[in-house]
């Protein structure tokens, strides 16, 4: 078992509230992603688990044991950062065995474990090289092997892909994602890149302003965001204003059925794929963006609002075309207007 829990964590620096009452569980063997805008408290949360920060309030437990005041070196956490922080004067193998040496693991055992990990990460041929002679992607793999070597209670990864080129990022995220699955490591993955989190993590926590807005699988966060913030931060959402009356929502250009019988002003969050062509609403194409398999169209609705919708990549639409638009009510989310602004 290797479970990490954060209970009502608050971290205040002077006037600045970095983390404002976070409850989170990283379940045994899962990779939990934390995403959120810059400054929302991702790194502070990670550093609290590592023990580099003592929370102002709240508790951190590992398998039920309170570690809130246990120093970092006694927590057995593995860390992987954006800056690889490898020992430049040691070989790759020595970098990987370093933590084991500190823990008095025998030389034979150290070497065996290091070589297994280097093999697993496909960098066995680099064992005797110096980190300075390696590419960014190779250094990142060495960093990961070093963090995994100590068989950490929890592996903490803070923006590990930043600085790598786009193609390598895609490759590494698949490889590292499968590796973490395979090894059943309990891991926390901090990134500002929501697509990376969706691809790599079993569950994702969306942070905003020091608080958790939603925790769930990538699919549940994308399909059932609990508020406007999550709907717009994760993926693209068109926010439409509507007025709910009885069992209908009047969007101005069309109406939606509303089983929830909301009343008053509502915000309807609709994904680009929730709109289709061939419908009754006349809209004008403002801009098209070709993205290979799909094309994004910015279109202006009769009420003057603009939405982004998705069509096939080979569909031939140009700015100025008038198209018929339809909204598919199946997956749209309805929120009372104004949730995005916090009042507390
Ligand atoms: P980014 O994506 O930009 O790295 P983040 O989500 O990781 O951001 P944190 O680094 O956790 O955010 O910072 C949260 C807030 O706490 C920010 O407003 C930051 O300025 C503040 N903060 C973090 N560390 C300190 C510190 N040592 N002293 C004062 N304020 C701090």
From TrEMBL:
InterPro entries from the UniProt entry: AAA+_ATPase, ABC_SmlMolc_Importer, ABC_transporter-like_ATP-bd, ABC_transporter-like_CS, Mo/tungstate-bd_C_term_dom, P-loop_NTPase, Transp-assoc_OB_typ2
GO cellular-component term (any): ATP-binding cassette (ABC) transporter complex
Pfam families: ABC_tran, TOBE_2
EC number: 7.3.2.6
Membrane topology note: Peripheral membrane protein
GO MF terms held by the record: ABC-type tungstate transporter activity; ATP binding; ATP hydrolysis activity
Keyword Nucleotide-binding included in the entry's annotation: yes
Chief site of localization: membrane
UniProt entry tagged with the keyword Nucleotide-binding: yes
Group of enzyme by EC: translocase
Occurrences of domain ABC transporter (ranges): 4-234
Subcellular location: Cell membrane
Organism domain of life: Archaea
Keyword field: ATP-binding, Molybdenum, Nucleotide-binding, Transport
Catalytic activity: tungstate(in) + ATP + H2O = tungstate(out) + ADP + phosphate + H(+)
Listed SUPFAM superfamilies: MOP-like, P-loop containing nucleoside triphosphate hydrolases
Role of this protein: Part of the ABC transporter complex WtpABC involved in molybdate/tungstate import. Responsible for energy coupling to the transport system.
Family (UniProt): Belongs to the ABC transporter superfamily. Sulfate/tungstate importer (TC 3.A.1.6) family.
Subunit structure as annotated in this protein's UniProt entry: The complex is composed of two ATP-binding proteins (WtpC), two transmembrane proteins (WtpB) and a solute-binding protein (WtpA).
Protein name as catalogued: Molybdate/tungstate import ATP-binding protein WtpC
Organism for this UniProt entry: Salinadaptatus halalkaliphilus
Organism taxonomic ancestry: Archaea, Methanobacteriati, Methanobacteriota, Stenosarchaea group, Halobacteria
């Amino acid at each position: 078992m290797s479970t990490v829990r954060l209970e009502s964590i608050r971290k205040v620096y002077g006037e600045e509230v970095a983390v404002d009452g976070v409850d989170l569980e990283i379940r045994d063997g899962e990779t939990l992603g934390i995403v959120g805008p810059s400054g929302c408290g991702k790194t502070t949360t990670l550093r609290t688990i590592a023990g580099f920060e003592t929370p102002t309030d709240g508790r951190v437990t590992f398998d039920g044991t309170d570690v809130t005041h246990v120093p970092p070196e006694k927590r057995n956490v593995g860390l992987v950062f954006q800056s690889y922080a490898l020992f430049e004067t040691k070989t790759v193998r020595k970098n990987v065995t370093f933590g084991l040496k500190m823990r008095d693991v025998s030389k034979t055992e150290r070497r065996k474990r290091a070589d297994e990990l280097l093999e697993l990460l496909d960098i066995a041929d680099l064992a005797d090289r110096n980190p300075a002679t390696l590419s960014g992607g190779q250094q990142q793999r060495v960093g990961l092997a070093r963090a995994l070597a100590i068989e950490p209670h929890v592996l903490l990864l803070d923006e590990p892909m930043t600085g790598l080129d786009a193609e390598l990022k895609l490759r590494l995220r698949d490889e590292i994602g499968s590796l973490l699955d395979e090894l059943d490591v309990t891991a926390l993955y901090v990134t500002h890149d929501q697509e990376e989190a969706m691809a790599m993590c079993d569950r994702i926590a969306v942070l905003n302003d020091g608080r958790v807005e939603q925790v769930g699988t990538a699919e549940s966060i994308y399909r059932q965001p609990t508020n406007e913030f999550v709907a717009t931060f994760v993926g693209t959402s068109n926010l439409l204003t509507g007025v709910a009356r009885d069992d209908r929502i009047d969007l101005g250009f069309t109406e939606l059925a509303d089983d929830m019988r909301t009343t008053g002003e509502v915000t309807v969050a609709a994904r680009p794929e929730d709109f289709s062509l061939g419908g009754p609403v006349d809209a004008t194409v403002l801009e098209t963006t070709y993205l290979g398999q799909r094309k994004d169209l910015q279109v202006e609705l009769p009420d003057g609002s603009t939405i982004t919708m998705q069509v096939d990549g080979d569909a031939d639409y140009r700015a100025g075309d008038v198209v018929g638009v339809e909204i598919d009510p199946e997956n749209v989310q309805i929120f009372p207007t104004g949730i995005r602004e916090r009042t507390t």
